Amino acid sequence: MTFYERTERGMTRLAAGLALLGGMGLIFATLVTCVSILLKLGGRIFDNTTETFSWLRPILGEEELVTYGVGFALFAALPWVMIQRGHIKIDLFEPVFGNRFNRILDLIGDVILAALAYLILTRQWFMLFSKARGSKEPLGNLLLQGDFAGAADRMRTSQESQILGLPLWPTYIVAEICVAVFFVVALFCVWRRIRALLSPSTTEV
Length: 205
What we know:
The protein is mainly alpha-helical. The protein has helices at 3-45, 62-83, 99-128, 139-144, 148-156, 169-198.
């Protein structure tokens, strides 16, 4: 087995494993939605009957929990969609062009997706480590100085969700990991397209 084949197998397994974890996010969002609907329905049925069923009310922060679950599923699916070429592709004129020109277009498409993955990766990094305001020391400086207590305090006092008041930095970290995998997989796909372009074979890759 060549180095390329081992790399392809590793990337495929990594993307598949992350996509399966993302499926857990969809299951979580579905369960939260169903349970909240049932509680809301039960609350309306037994409303004004007895205080025994006063606990039948929708789950607090249902929208936020569903958003977290679906968001994780979407970010986790990016590497799998990339390596399986599952993204939207307009191939109306593909039969008209030659095989080599189509490979060039495929390479350009993967390069663009890799660039987008890099932009998302760096943008989320700045959201996670936002600039300090006023006289506060930047978070990066605190980490470099070894002031982990100060850095942890800065992260605890960072942005929170509106309803549940949950800190948002863990969601940024999870999304950053998913996008980092997406970026690595996208780079591999660019490599795969270059090999296909330089290969004398006409087999579709």
